[in-house]
Fold this sequence. Notes:
- The protein is α/β, with parallel strands linked by helices.
- The chain has four domains: 2-60 and 170-205, D-Maltodextrin-Binding Protein, domain 2; 63-168, D-Maltodextrin-Binding Protein, domain 2, CATH 3.40.190; 221-294 and 406-417 and 441-447, Periplasmic binding protein-like II (D-Maltodextrin-Binding Protein, domain 2), CATH 3.40.190.10; 295-401, 3-Layer(aba) Sandwich (D-Maltodextrin-Binding Protein, domain 2).
- It has 19 helices and 18 strands.
- The strands form three sheets. Strands 9, 10, 11, 12, 13, 14, 15, 16, 17 and 18 form a ten-stranded mixed β-sheet that branches. A five-stranded mixed β-sheet has the order 5-4-6-3-7. Strands 1-8-2 form a three-stranded antiparallel β-sheet.
- Helix 10 packs antiparallel against helix 18 (428-436).
- 41% of the residues are buried.
Amino acid sequence: xxxxxxxxxxxxQIQYGGSGTLLSNLEISNQGDLYIAAxxxxxxIARDKGLVQETLPLSxxxxxxxxxxxxxxxxxxxxxxxxxxxxLSLANPDAASVGxxxxxxxxxxGLWERINSAVLENGVFKPTVNEVANDVKLGAVDAxxxxxxxxxxxxxxxxxxxxxxxxxxxxxxxxxLNASKQSAKALRFARYLAAPEKGSPIFEKHGFxxxxxxxxxxxPEILYYSGGVNRVAIEETLRAFQERxxxxxxxxxxxxxxxxxxIKSGGEPDLYHTCDASFMRxxxxxxxxxxxxxxxxxxxxxxxxxxxxxxxxADLGAKKLQLGVCNEDQSTLGTxxxxxxxxxxxxxxxNRNVVVNTPTADxxxxxxxxxxxxxxxxxxANATYILDKxxxxxxxxxxxxxxxxxxxxxxxxxxxxxxxxxxxxxxAESEKRFLDSGFExxxxxxxx
Length: 448
């Protein structure tokens, strides 16, 4: 915090306390910008309660037994804490993360009830991990259960491992509060704390192991490739994300045939949002798992009132009309349209009426609404905002649906930032924008 204050000329006010105590205070006051908890369960609770929006990992913690240096009582395992006359200090499970985690660990190995009784009879519960460690340092108790990083900060203490503790390693996590009136500044400080060149070395200096974080940049930039069909559904989400995070998103909208070709030729987007999952083929190795987010049907749009009485794909070749389709080589929709026509034996007859061939469907929609086309094959999502000017004819054919996916590049410089962007694209607000734009939605449970 001091280094950040000096570098950016801002004032940072810090209130210290147990993770549970601080969370309770936040519920009452609903004030503040950031919340650092020694255990992700607390930031998860804060998120569930609507107190926290974004979270970033900062370090790792593991519970250990703290004893005076030299281990005068010869404590070798957690079972030794049950010796007669041994004085023990524990953190309150309702106030401090290490107390909550210690209780879970001791319960799992079948010792909680006995150790809890021993503390009540001949020990003490304290509200914070530092107070527990100080009890050992000052000789008020013989041993305590604390975090490994806490022991690292005291020359007078040494750590004894607890069996089974590997299953209870916790992430120190910082969360940005919804109450913050300056989210971009709060997120910038959070990113600073997690950056390997900034906050991470300071954590390590004080005994906190580092976790992978995004490299520091005051205003990071994201390159976002997206099929044109997604544009209306995502633009507002991307705008809000940029404003809240204080970052820049460079969007490239185009037909996925073109985007796929650019990636194969060396394009390196941080995130690739397809028109259809099939347009991940050939570049899967460059990205993490492509997660389904939405889907939309392929439909025919016609002039209002449907003057040519078009009902099926076959009607597009049986009547003399001005038809628009997407380019088979440049567009997902063009590829899928050509496939549907071939599968139904209609490719040649329908193509005789094609007068416009474009890389994206929005161009077809524009031309139909000004009377330059009699019909066009587009996505249902493309037609949502022109229902007062056009009629939509469903195809009702197998394969006449496109499923959109999102995938984060393995080589992105900002994996944590991209993870938060993906989370933003999956919020309830984003879901409504997709539904309002004519898409069907894949809930996270279904998509992942």
